[in-house]
């Protein structure tokens, strides 16, 4: 009975969050967006991806992972990742098989941070992506829309009214409205957690998995300090670069699986939602 009441409460909260008024992309809703490129139209990268499967099982399974492509934004102004996959051996060139080669950083596209990403003690202790808790990476999750006129501050976190007991939350921000993950080039005016927003989450919620819709969970001006708060105790997992376009706010089953990269503090990750 208690579980049913919690689920109902979460659903009500999610619907309420979805009703936030969303300003037009490229507006002055965020102080760092002066002169930002208008993104009302769908960028070419998004159009190119339109032919790929984003829903399965008649819409029951939703892909929330970005395709790893050469023009993915990288974490620097205007930067892109460059080629990710190349065909090293090709049947078209006379070999008996096709063989692809993968070359990429561990922090690009849809990715996960291990505790050692910005905590040397955790890194020295061997807390790599292969030791991340798969139970935490898979289970019921709440997708919420954050206020669109701010970074994720303590005040913004408090306004979301996320109840105790919720362990996994995906935060959809103005980044999704602005199609930042579809742009060719990094944009450091993205929305993320401030230091006080991260601290409020740690102190006042039971959230242990934090998902967000751009390359870093932390706002640029709080890049180090917010990560330090999240990783002070190695019990929070950060999933970044999620594809949350056209997904309704609400409750889902989340399934995320990183690669077993021994010794790495980050990894590409495949995430899906199941209704």
TrEMBL record:
Gene3D superfamilies: Putative cyclase (3.50.30.50). SUPFAM superfamilies: Putative cyclase. It is found in: Secreted, Extracellular space, Extracellular matrix. Keywords: Extracellular matrix, Secreted, Signal. GO terms for molecular function: arylformamidase activity. It comes from the Eukaryota. One of its GO terms (biological process) is L-tryptophan catabolic process to kynurenine. InterPro entries: KFase/CYL (IPR007325), KFase_sf (IPR037175). Residues 1-18 form the signal peptide. Pfam families: Cyclase (PF04199). Its main location: secreted. Belongs to the Cyclase 1 superfamily. This is Uncharacterized protein.
